[in-house]
Specification:
This protein has three helices and two strands; from the N terminus they run E-H-H-H-E. The chain is of the alpha+beta class. It has one domain. The protein has a two-stranded antiparallel sheet with strand order 1-2. Helix 2 packs antiparallel against helix 3. It is globular, with a radius of gyration of 12 Å.
């Protein structure tokens, strides 16, 4: 299973533009606060390293997407 996170502050979520730009886009978790995303991922998935580490690392990076890793 692969789970990708795309972070954007643009008003394009679930739009055709977003679907065209990000192949395989399925759904949006937003707009959610960072802590809410971490809580959701922690409750739903067994991520290693933890959801908090992966999300916090992603947020401070300049990458537009992130592939989460599982145990």
């Amino acid at each position: 299973m692969e789970l990708h996170i795309i972070y954007t502050e643009a008003d394009m979520l679930l739009s055709k533009e977003c679907l065209d730009e990000h192949a395989g886009f399925k759904t949006s978790l937003g707009p959610w606060e960072q802590d809410a995303v971490i809580e959701y991922l922690t409750d739903e998935y067994d991520l290693k390293p933890s959801a908090a580490i992966q999300v916090n690392t992603f947020v401070v990076s300049e990458a537009p997407t992130c592939l989460l890793t599982f145990s």
